Amino acid sequence: MNRLGVIDRYRAFLPVTDKTPVVSLQEGSTPLLPAPRLARELGLPETSVYLKFEGMNPTGSFKDRGMTVAVSKAVEENASAVVCASTGNTAASAAAYAARAGLRCVVLLPDGKVAAGKLAQSLIHGAEVLAVKGNFDAALDLARRASQELGLALVNSVNPYRIAGQKTAAFEVVEALGRPPEYQFMPVGNAGNITAYWAGYREVATREGLGLPRMMGFQAWGAAPIVLGKPVAKPETIATAIRIGNPASWKAAEAARDESRGAIARVKDAEILAAYRMLARLEGVFCEPSSAAGVAGLVALAKAKAIEIADPKELRIVCVLTGHGLKDPETPKSLPHKWRAVPADFSALKKALAKR
Length: 356
Ligand code: AN7
Hints:
It is a single chain. By secondary structure, the chain is of the alpha/beta class. The protein is built from 14 helices and ten strands. The protein has helices spanning about 5-10, 35-40, 65-75, 90-100, 115-125, 135-150, 160-165, 170-175, 190-210, 225-230, 250-260, 270-285, 290-305, 345-355, and strands spanning about 30-35, 50-55, 80-85, 105-110, 130, 155, 185, 215-220, 265, 315-320. Strands 1-2-10-7-8-9 form a six-stranded mixed β-sheet. A four-stranded parallel β-sheet has the order 5-4-3-6, sandwiched between helices. Strand 4, helix 5 (about 115-125) and strand 5 (about 130) form a beta-alpha-beta unit. The longest helix has 17 residues, at about 190-210. Ligand AN7 binds near residues 90, 188 and 290. Ligand AN7 binds near residues 88, 188, 193, 241 and 322.
């Protein structure tokens, strides 16, 4: 398959020139999956709900869209090393793209709070992994200082090249639907992604004379600074990717919310886990828990009959599933399952299958 990465596909809309060396893993071009069984379960029109499955990117999350641009520009600007703080996915992506570019990569991770798959990725790609005895917000402060004082290129989403790359997901949604959706639901952590999608939707709307979606962002209940209107000193949630108390793109996320007549609200861990299971069981789509926060928000609004439906046939709702479920192999085991041991014996198997 000849797949273009996001720089080659959207070159004209990105801050690159012919001189920029392209560091790519053929990221982007992710599926936009219809979710009719989920829609029916929520009492929404069957053709209305779509899943932008960003877990299908090379390192398993949306971060790759921004990382290809950030690392390509770091190489162009003669950086010899990159640094980031991360709840796991940014680190995994930075580690992979830095490896591909032959750059040194330093990742600062909140000690003990990173899902197993993400840590495994940073390690195998050869990043220098530093487990910070503190949360993401403390790690980001350290990464900023390391960038300023030690000259490492910072590849967190405060780097505008990251946001530029990530806005390409909005371009793909519009291409797939033929127009922007009425609503977009997504998780919010450091708030770079909601900022990037909003920039992307605004760009296509201006270019092609189209409308704009309402941006619906969801934080975890115990890590909801934007909802509460103040930083959270000790953010807590099972959705470790969005365990962030002081988002870097706070103001831009509020602008996306307000300009789009959208909302930023919070969902409980139990609601996140319920949506996570629902996606896996109704649609065959396995995302990581944080990714399900947007869907949990949709479930809550659909239940409250708070989704505006002008024309049921025309309604389009996109849920962004930011990361792959395999990133976090532990969480599924904590949920109830049909799982039992059987002796290696056919009559025992028959008996076991008879009682469901
Ligand atoms: C799966 O990797 O912040 O609101 O350091 O991994 O743009 O931060 C990850 C965030 C949603 C939130 N879903 O996006 C990091 C990091 C997943 C994520 C978010 C993250 P932003």
